[in-house]
Design brief:
The structure is a single chain. By secondary structure, the chain is an alpha/beta fold. Helix content is 44%, strand content 13%. The chain is built from 18 helices and 11 strands. A 7-stranded mixed sheet has the order 7-6-5-8-9-11-10, sandwiched between helices. A 4-stranded mixed sheet has the order 2-1-3-4. Strand 8, helix 13 and strand 9 form a beta-alpha-beta unit. Helix 13 crosses helix 15.
Amino acid sequence: MADAAGRLSALAEEVLGAPFPVRIRAWDGSEAGPPPGPSPHTGDTRDATGTADAVDAAATADASPKPPTLVVRNRRAVRRLLWRPGELGLARGWVAGDLDIDGDLYAALDLLSGVLWDRGEESAPRRNLRSVLNAARDPRLRSAARDLLAIAGPWPPPKPPVEEVRARRGPLHTLRRDRAAISHHYDVGNDFYELVLGPSMVYSCAYWPAPDATSQPDPDAGADLAEAQRAKLDLVCRKLGLEPGQRLLDVGCGWGSMVLHAAREYGVRAVGITLSQEQAEYARKRVADAGLTDRVEIRVQDYRRVSDGPYDAISSIGMAEHVGAVRYGEYAALLYGLLRPGGRLLNHQIARPPQRHEDAYRVDEFIDRYVFPDGELAPVGRTVSQLEEAGFEVRDLESLREHYGLTLRAWVGNLERNWTQALRHVSPGRARVWRLYMAASALAFERNRIGVNQVLAVRTPEPGTSGLPLRTRTWN
């Protein structure tokens, strides 16, 4: 087929009503779209071949940046888009290796954001129905659909990549369904996470130092992620006011970094809970190696099954996104009940902007099918309200949005530098999922599409004595 890229570019413009924002290179070698030329570098120089050697070489290359190009490797990518237009079809093509980006991944995602994510508040079912009806009435779009069918080639539709979560049944956020969702994301191999997260093994937003007059933290240039993660753990400990002998519960403890830091640096007795068997085994080994088995306990346990309060403090760092709207009130009430009077909760949670019609909120299909099954984001105002409804007094809220963009860029850099080794631990599709979701998330934080907040709340006793200083920001 001659000039497949030209035909795809023209069809995309017909459907979108505007020029497709990135250049296209098709399987026949043809190219179309915005002319090649210099583009700003935003941190990714991966070669389009998608091979391990290309990624490792790109990590050290010092070539001039070029504008990104969407590489359509075969007709199968077009068939995926025909059967699932939009984000999910593109995601399936990316994970399967049918689609790739030649050039700067961050720049490409930034350019494509208007096509993929900036879609307004209309609910997905209503938006899809309206799109179908409009297409059926529009002769231009009917003609475009026929052309796309001709380009796509033989049927049937391709199967989804094996990395995709299959259809789930039953009510959301039961004990069994939450356990399966957590296993999908976290039980992909501790060796893989070591490559991505680095020695800190902390899978949440780091706390980067303030830039001075001449420098800005640059994860791509090897800024110290481990030190930034240590600073975040210490910030949480200081906000909780931890003291020797106190009991700390860490909900969603991951690989044990928070409980280890709190026990080692602040002398607390800590319990960490996770639903991931792989995380628990790794964390227990770290505790034993640190000689802290007398002060740190790691459990495979759901937060709904913890019954050995009271605790002096509770940390929940990057876990509440898995709770879900239908369970959040229960989550807040249970944590309140596990604290002693005067005890503190530090809830570190990703947030989204509120919508005019909250029932229109839908999780991105790519995130739901490939990254965080059943994960949900809520506006920070709703989180604060539900904590207060449970009885907490909310005393401080700090946004770390820019810090998460820096953290995600550091993780992407780690994955790209260690691509060859990563593929010894996970499938190429799984590695591509992580690279895409982390790069897209970095841009989402940087562009203020999502945020992350630390909310400090207290189970203030009846007399009203919170136990906090008059000037609470003494931990900074």
